[in-house]
TrEMBL record:
<protein>
    <recommendedName>
        <fullName>Epoxyqueuosine reductase</fullName>
        <ecNumber>1.17.99.6</ecNumber>
    </recommendedName>
</protein>
<feature type="binding site">
    <location>
        <position position="231"/>
    </location>
    <ligand>
        <name>[4Fe-4S] cluster 2</name>
    </ligand>
</feature>
<keyword id="KW-0479">Metal-binding</keyword>
<comment type="function">
    <text>Catalyzes the conversion of epoxyqueuosine (oQ) to queuosine (Q), which is a hypermodified base found in the wobble positions of tRNA(Asp), tRNA(Asn), tRNA(His) and tRNA(Tyr).</text>
</comment>
<comment type="similarity">
    <text>Belongs to the QueG family.</text>
</comment>
<feature type="binding site">
    <location>
        <position position="175"/>
    </location>
    <ligand>
        <name>cob(II)alamin</name>
    </ligand>
</feature>
<dbReference type="InterPro" id="IPR017900">
    <property type="entry name" value="4Fe4S_Fe_S_CS"/>
</dbReference>
<keyword id="KW-0004">4Fe-4S</keyword>
<feature type="binding site">
    <location>
        <position position="186"/>
    </location>
    <ligand>
        <name>cob(II)alamin</name>
    </ligand>
</feature>
<keyword id="KW-0819">tRNA processing</keyword>
<feature type="domain" description="4Fe-4S ferredoxin-type">
    <location>
        <begin position="193"/>
        <end position="225"/>
    </location>
</feature>
<feature type="binding site">
    <location>
        <position position="208"/>
    </location>
    <ligand>
        <name>[4Fe-4S] cluster 1</name>
    </ligand>
</feature>
<keyword id="KW-0560">Oxidoreductase</keyword>
<dbReference type="InterPro" id="IPR004453">
    <property type="entry name" value="QueG"/>
</dbReference>
<keyword id="KW-0411">Iron-sulfur</keyword>
<dbReference type="InterPro" id="IPR013542">
    <property type="entry name" value="QueG_DUF1730"/>
</dbReference>
<feature type="binding site">
    <location>
        <begin position="258"/>
        <end position="259"/>
    </location>
    <ligand>
        <name>cob(II)alamin</name>
    </ligand>
</feature>
Length: 370
């Protein structure tokens, strides 16, 4: 993240110069690997009431940061004074060599990790690319004010990307694009450059409800409305406490995030695989055995997950999530043998979820005797 100090304002003499500058910037962005690039103003007045309603319903759960920044999230110029435009970009992340997502979900002894988290932490990759773009703009056109974001501050990424024409908001609340599907990250540059804005594109979800129908926990409570408290991505990543017992059986083998709504989306037939080496699968995370990753020591977890988005949830949450996955796995000697040593784990959160998992297998064994 960077913010130029004491910039010399760029004078754009007419609309033709501004349009040419925007076209040049978009060309450079594509050279850096970005898929779609759009430019919009800072007016999110249409999105602000919906966001406030979402907060009022407590759909953000424990994510206090969603509410604590006041209107800075919905008013970009309050977050970064002087902001006139937002340059919005997307970056494809689906590795070409990753195991098929549905096959992993249908193999209950394997651990399902959200496809975005199988490689290097996207925050770092996106920030570096956005910074490279800003450096090139500075070297060519002169100093300007900017700040780059990669899911790292109170920024309404989807609302801004929608306004900028990068895609449309799907019923699952993620951004969709006809040429790329939804397997991509979003990033932004807040800037004082008076560039021409791009028009939004039309939405193409139509009457389809595939994402709503497939959600394992019914977290998509209505089209375009997500109750994060029921979302497996929230439960396995953002939520640090005990996972509600009624939701645990619904989580299956999803131990970090959830992709069901993307896996089922018809537009992802057109998804573009990433060419970014940093997003290649690391440590077999595309089809890892639950028993194997539950056996990692804390040192092994830290070593294997260094540089990964998974690292930030920490070892305790990792074990908590996998314990639930093991509780949902078919009963076997290997599963029981993996769980039992952690029944007396020093961490109460781990103990609780291991006890639940073992109870599931005891219940299955009892059912088998009846």
């Amino acid at each position: 993240m960077s913010h130029q100090s004491h910039p010399v304002p760029i004078q754009l003499p007419d609309v033709h110069v501004a349009a040419q500058m925007a076209a040049t910037i978009k060309g450079w962005a594509r050279e850096l690997g970005f898929g779609n690039i759009g430019i919009t103003d800072t007016d999110l007045s249409a999105a602000e009431p919906e966001f406030l309603k979402w907060l009022d319903k407590q759909y953000h759960g424990d994510m206090d940061y969603m509410a604590k920044h006041g209107t800075k999230r919905t008013r970009p110029a309050e977050l970064v004074p002087g902001t006139l435009r937002v340059i919005s970009v997307n970056l494809n992340y689906l590795p070409a060599d990753a195991a098929d997502g549905w096959q992993v979900l249908e193999s209950p002894e394997q651990a399902y990790v959200a496809r975005y988290a199988m490689g290097r932490d996207y925050h770092k990759v996106m920030r570096q690319k956005l910074q490279q773009l800003c450096t090139r703009i500075t070297e060519t056109f002169g100093s300007f004010e900017y700040r780059v974001f990669a899911d790292s501050a109170p920024v309404m990424e989807v609302a801004l990307a929608t306004k900028a024409g990068v895609g449309w908001r799907g019923k699952h609340t993620l951004l969709l694009n006809r040429q790329q599907g939804s397997w991509f990250f979003l990033g932004e540059i807040y800037t004082n450059l008076p560039l021409p804005v791009d028009p939004p594109i039309s939405a193409h979800c139509g009457s389809c409800t595939a994402c709503i129908d497939v959600c394992p926990t019914a977290a998509i409570v209505a089209p375009y409305e997500l109750d994060a408290r029921r979302c497996i991505s929230y439960l396995t990543i953002e939520h640090q406490g005990s996972i509600p017992e009624e939701l645990r059986p619904l989580m299956g083998n999803r131990v970090y995030g959830c992709d069901d709504c993307q896996l089922t989306c018809p537009w992802n037939k057109f998804a573009v695989k990433t060419s970014e080496p940093d997003f290649a699968v690391r440590h077999g995370l595309d089809s890892l055995s639950l028993v194997t990753c539950f056996g990692w020591t804390e040192a092994e977890f830290q070593q294997k997950m260094a540089g990964s988005a998974i690292y930030r949830i920490g070892y305790t949450q990792w074990l908590r999530n996998i314990a639930v996955g093991l509780g949902n796995a078919p009963t076997s000697m290997a599963v029981i043998a993996a769980l039992k040593p952690r029944a007396q784990d020093e961490n109460a959160l781990v103990r609780e979820h291991v006890a639940w998992a073992l109870a599931q297998h005891q219940a299955h064994a009892h059912e088998g005797l009846c």
